[in-house]
Specification:
Layout: E1 2-10, E2 13-20, E3 22-27, E4 30-34, E5 38-42, E6 45-53, E7 60-66, H1 68-77, E8 88-92, H2 95-108
Antiparallel strand pairs: 1-6, 2-5, 2-7, 3-4, 3-6, 5-8
Length: 109
Amino acid sequence: MRPGKRTVLLTEHTLIFVINGIKLLHFPGETVKAEPNSVILLKKGIYVMAEYFEDGLTFEAMMIFLPRKALKELMKERGEDGKDDPPFIIFPAGDLLTEFKEQYRGYFG
């Protein structure tokens, strides 16, 4: 496995779909691992990230930047204000998100 660690400034809230490899997010006292078929929702901010992949493969992820208004609407629908939420949420990509990801990739690919 080959690491590629860097500090990243996200100026928008971001959805990350991990496609190949593993993404690590480093937080004070905690490292979070996201694998293929998982989705990460990150609040805008500064993050230390690393990507790992096996020899011969490349790391691949799709990032979608969400305007603040769209995220606020999503939180409102869930009955949350988002003020006390953690800086990230990792969850499995269900059928709907997997289909969205594939269509989105097809559009740009």
